[in-house]
Prior knowledge:
Elements: E1 2-6, H1 12-22, E2 26-30, H2 41-46, E3 54-57, E4 60-63, H3 65-75, H4 90-112, H5 124-146, H6 159-168, H7 184-194, H8 197-202, H9 204-208
Parallel strand pairs: 1-2
Antiparallel strand pairs: 1-3, 3-4
Amino acid sequence: MYKLFYALKSASMGVRVLLEEIGIPYELIQTTVDKGTPRPSEQLAVNPNGWVPVLLWEDGAMYECAAITMFLCDRHPQVGLAPSVDDPSRAEFLQTLVYFSNSVQNAFQLTYYPDRFVDTPSDEPSAQRRGNRRLRETWAIIEDQIADKEWVLGNRFSAADIYLFMLTTWLRSAKGHPAISEFPNAKRIADKVLQRSSVQHVYQPWIENPEY
Length: 212
């Protein structure tokens, strides 16, 4: 059984969708993304940053959403959520996950947590504005990469599509983020991912209130 340290509005929701898709038992351990609230000691023992997701299993533990995604896909290849190591599309799969993690998520951090990037509170609005511009830049790259393909990797559904959907749920007009409608190719894929039963189950709070 897997254990997943879990909080709404976080990347742990994407990992939970993967666990639902794989169809194996898992336990959710509720935690928080509120920086002023203490984290469970077991979570901090794995990730001293205090962030989620954190995944535990029989003989191991890890953090970082993109890494967990690769790990689960490779550990459960029968589900077909990732190309095999000798598949020509494996390179694009890995590239996309790392781009999501290192570039798109970093842009989101500038808008949600500007204090991490500046010395004084007075500089935070500047960081947020740059984050919003960077979001448009990074989503435009993804939009062009998808082009007219059915899924991120072409004609096959993969964990990259789940990751893309997760990122779309973080877009907030109140923060000055671009609307997903500005990127019709990405929206088309996100809309299809939303129809999956695993996503309907995990993202019910967001479905009921996208600004939750």
